[in-house]
Design goal:
The N and C termini lie close together (12 Å). The protein has two domains: 3-142, Beta Barrel (OB fold (Dihydrolipoamide Acetyltransferase, E2P)), CATH 2.40.50.140; 165-314 and 374-482, Bira Bifunctional Protein, Domain 2 (BirA Bifunctional Protein, domain 2). It has helices at residues 3-22, 38-44, 91-94, 96-103, 152-157, 159-165, 167-189, 230-238, 276-295, 318-326, 336-345, 356-367, 421-436, 447-455, 467-475, and strands at 53-69, 73-80, 83-90, 110-119, 125-136, 193-194, 200-201, 213-216, 221-225, 243-251, 263-272, 299-302, 305-308, 315-317, 376-379, 391-392, 395-399, 401-406, 409-416, 460-466. The chain is elongated. It has 496 residues and is of the alpha+beta class. It contains 15 helices and 20 strands. It has an eight-stranded mixed sheet with strand order 6-10-11-20-19-18-15-14, sandwiched between helices. Strands 1-2-3-5-4 form a five-stranded mixed beta barrel. A three-stranded antiparallel sheet has the order 7-9-8, with no helix packed on it.
Length: 496
């Protein structure tokens, strides 16, 4: 609809609102007590023969999506929670005045109806309307019924309209709900307790990322929006809550693309008395159950290939993948200059401040990540890039850590948690030094967390799962904006 056409249509509908009020009808009433959903009406009429009327009384509410006027009959289709049901409106039943009001309804109006369940001559389950109430007058016309919202930016910006006309959008968020419910159920069944930890942090830690910084006026101090929930959750392990998890928003002040949004949802869990191997088993269970509970199957499509999630997931070290990619052995024990020369030969940029471990991570990221398509645990990360993980018991240059990669993207991160307070303080100091040297993604020294570790934290395995990317995978969509109801967007210059 053109801009002038939209203005004229809105003016017409606003005039209708004024007329209704002049006639003593409130176009935005406070309440409607419904007895049935559209889905329940369909269930009630499922076994009826065509042309059957019943005395089953229902009160249903929904949005008008279609109107057909046949003179003394009007057929309306209303939508209720993604289910359509037809309204059969006879002038002889509702009366002249009410019938005229129904004929004046617009697509997009919310209505409440009282009537009885019936089927038409062609077998369409319907409600024979006895009384209809306008519940909310739609001033702005809905997007075109057949084409919907085709511009992605408009879809994401006007999610409210997208959900009305786009069944695929509703499907994605139903899958998202089922995935989160499944993860919560799996963890609770294993004895985990769900908790909530602060969003505002005094120290920066738990991940490597650039933060959002805010200011607390009363305390006159800077605070960070959390980049992870890790350090507070592990404080709870110290306190004796030996299985905890949190599903919540985290924030990273970084670039946006098809897999990154500045605010996103993470699930982090921590379990005492287990290690990285127990965490990998938990990760497989969480994702396999999430697929089963949201899709009804554990067989999913990955890059056009059917992958059975119940099959064992390969486990391979990061240094081995990087070595294979460059054609020679790379390891964090090697001199920085040697590794930087390898990176240069393969066109991989390295910052001057990076150590050997960080260079190896970059070699893996640039040369290997995209080739990891099927679910794979990449293990043995260098110490330099894993400040909160325990050392690999067989190699002091590596850590007892994994990242789960699918389709060349990270979906989960887990490790045997570092619980030595002296070692932890030294790693925090190294993080702070790197931050002071200009790496704004590095963390600061959290002395209170070190103090917590000094009280003693038992052996612990930790896990973080990116909920948004998991929804993308299982729902089969390509952009993170498709799985976040209101993704971050540049402001509109002049909303119309």
């Amino acid at each position: 609809m053109s801009g002038s056409g939209l203005v004229a249509e809105k003016a017409r509908r606003i005039a209708r609102v004024d007329q209704l009020r002049a006639d003593g009808v409130e176009p935005y009433p406070y309440r409607f007590d419904r007895t049935h959903s559209a889905a329940e009406v369909r269930a009630a009429g499922a076994d009826l023969e065509p042309g059957t009327e019943t005395d089953v009384a229902v009160a249903v509410a929904g949005r008008v999506m279609l109107k057909r006027d046949s003179g003394k009959l009007v057929f309306l289709t209303i939508a209720d929670r993604g289910v359509d049901v037809q309204l059969f409106v006879s002038k002889a039943v509702v009366g002249d005045d009410a019938f005229a009001g129904i004929k004046a309804l617009d697509r997009g109006d919310w209505v409440g109806v009282h009537g009885t369940v019936m089927t038409t001559r062609v077998g369409e389950i319907s409600i024979k309307v006895e009384r209809l109430e306008l519940l909310s007058k739609s001033i702005r016309p809905l997007p075109d019924k057949w084409h919907g919202l085709t511009d992605p930016d408009t879809r994401f910006r006007q999610r409210y309209a997208d959900l009305v006309v786009n069944a695929d959008a509703r499907r994605v968020f139903e899958i998202r709900h089922a995935i989160i419910a499944s993860i919560r159920s799996t963890l609770v069944a294993r004895g985990f307790i769900e908790v909530e930890t602060p969003v505002l942090h005094a120290e920066l830690g738990g991940a490597t990322a650039r933060p959002f910084i805010t200011h607390h006026n009363t305390l006159d101090m800077p605070l960070y929006l959390r980049i992870a929930t890790e350090l507070h959750l592990k404080r709870l392990i110290v306190g004796g809550m030996d299985r905890v998890f949190e599903i919540g928003r985290t924030f990273r002040n970084e670039g946006m693309d098809t897999t990154h949004n500045p605010e996103f949802t993470m699930m982090e869990s921590y379990e005492a008395f287990t290690d990285v191997h127990g965490v990998m088993e938990l990760t497989e269970a969480l994702i396999t159950n999430a697929a089963r509970d949201s899709l009804g199957t554990t067989l999913i499509d990955v890059a056009g290939e059917q992958v059975e999630l119940t099959d064992p997931w390969p486990r391979v070290r990061m240094v081995d993948l990087a070595s294979e990619a460059v054609g020679e052995t790379v390891h964090p024990s090697q001199p920085v200059d040697h590794l930087r020369a390898i990176a240069d030969r393969h066109g991989v940029h390295c910052d001057k401040a990076w150590g050997s471990g960080k260079i190896i991570e970059e070699l893996f990221a640039e040369l290997c990540e995209k080739s990891v398509v099927r679910p794979t645990f990449v293990t043995g990360h260098p110490v330099e890039i894993s400040p909160l993980a325990r050392l690999d018991p067989d190699d002091p240059h590596l850590t007892d850590r994994f990242e789960l990669f699918i389709l060349g993207k990270e979906f989960a991160n887990g490790y045997s948690e570092l619980n030595d307070p002296v070692d932890q303080l030294q790693r925090f100091e190294a993080e702070q030094a790197a931050r002071d040297a200009g790496d704004n993604e590095r963390g600061t020294i959290d002395l209170d967390y070190v103090r917590a570790l000094e009280y003693g934290m038992p052996p612990t395995g930790g896990l973080g799962v990116g909920i948004d990317r998991l929804v993308m995978l299982l729902a089969g969509v390509d952009s993170i904006k498709d799985v976040i109801l209101f993704p971050t967007l540049r402001p509109e210059a002049n909303p119309q």
